[in-house]
Amino acid sequence: MKKIIAVGNTKGGVGKTTTAVHLADWLQKVKGSEVVFINASFQTGVHDWLDELEISYYQEKDPDELYALAESIDADYVVIDLPGASEIVREVLDYCDFMLTPVQPSALDLKDGIKMINIVHRKLKLRKNLHAAFFLSLVDLRSNAAGDAQAYFNKHKVNLLDTKIRRLKLIRDSPLVLSTAFRQTDAASKLVAQEYESLFKEFFADA
Ligand SMILES: Nc1ncnc2c1ncn2[C@@H]1O[C@H](COP(=O)(O)OP(=O)(O)OP(=O)(O)O)[C@@H](O)[C@H]1O
Ligand SMILES: [Mg+2]
Fold it and tell me: What gap in Å lies between CA 125 and CA 16, rounded to an integer?
C-alpha cells in the first residue's frame, strides 16, 4: 500500500527540503522503491536537484489541492516537502502516514518547537496510525546543544530519534552539486549516507 510521508515543521530553515530529498533518494535509489516527490512550497529551487536525481515530482502550493494530488499518485511512497507554516502542517497531519520533523537544537528553535510538538501531540491522539518523529538536524557536535535538546524532548514526551544529522558543508552543498550522499563514493559522503540511512531506518522501525 502506498505510504504518504511528509517532512514538516512549523518553522522554516530547519533542513526539511534537504531531508525530504535525501529520503526520496534513499527510498528510490537505495531501496529500489517507486517514489514521487511533492514540493508543497512556493520555491522551485529543488526542481533541478530532483531532475538530476531522476526523482518524479509535482509542485502543489495549494493546500486544498494537495490531498487530492497525493491520493491520486500511484507509487510506493509519496514524499511531501512542506513549507514552514502551521496551517498546512496541521492539514497534512490529517492524512499522511508518516511525519518526519527536523529540529535545530538551539535554545530559540526549541522554544519555537513547542508549537509543532503541540500540533503533533493532538493529531496523535486522534489518529492511531500516524507515525510521527522528530530528529535533531544541523547539529554541531562540538556544542552540547544536542544534549539540552534531548532533555527538552524527553520532558515533552516526544519521539526524538537517536540519530542526529550534523551541520556539514557536504550536506549544504548537495543541492549545488545536484547530488546526495548516497551517490558519492568518498569516505566523508559514505559516512553521511550511513547517518541518513540510520535516521530513516530508525524512523520506519516502529511502523
Ligand atoms: N545538515 C546540514 N548541514 C549543513 N547545511 C544544511 C544541512 N541541512 C540543511 N542545510 C542548509 O540549510 C539551509 C536550510 O535547509 P533547507 O532548505 O533544507 O531547510 P527548510 O526547512 O526546507 O527551509 P524552508 O523552510 O525555507 O523551506 C539550506 O541552505 C541547506 O543547504
Ligand atoms: Mg524547504
Answer: 24
Alpha carbon nearest to ligand 1 atom 10, residue = 172
Quick check: CB of 181 below 6 Å from ligand 1? no
The ligand with the least distance to the CA atom of 103 is: 1
Q: Using CA atoms, how far apart are residues 51 and 42, in angstroms rounded to an integer?
A: 17
Atom of ligand 1 nearest to the CA of 11: 25
Second CATH level (architecture) for the domain 3-205: 3-Layer(aba) Sandwich (3.40)
Cα atoms found within 13 Å of the Cα of residue 166, Cβ hemisphere only = 15
Dihedral pair phi/psi, residue 24, rounded to 5°:
-60, -40
Q: What is the mean pLDDT of the chain?
A: 94
* Protein residue with least CA distance to atom 1, ligand 1: 167
DSSP class of 182: G
With a cut of 50, list the residues of the chain below it in pLDDT. none
pLDDT digits (tens, 9 = 90+) for 148-187: 888 888 888 888 999 999 999 999 999 999 999 999 999 9
Please work out whether the CB of residue 3 comes within 6 Å of at least one atom of ligand 1.
Answer: no
C-alpha 173, offset from chain centre: 18
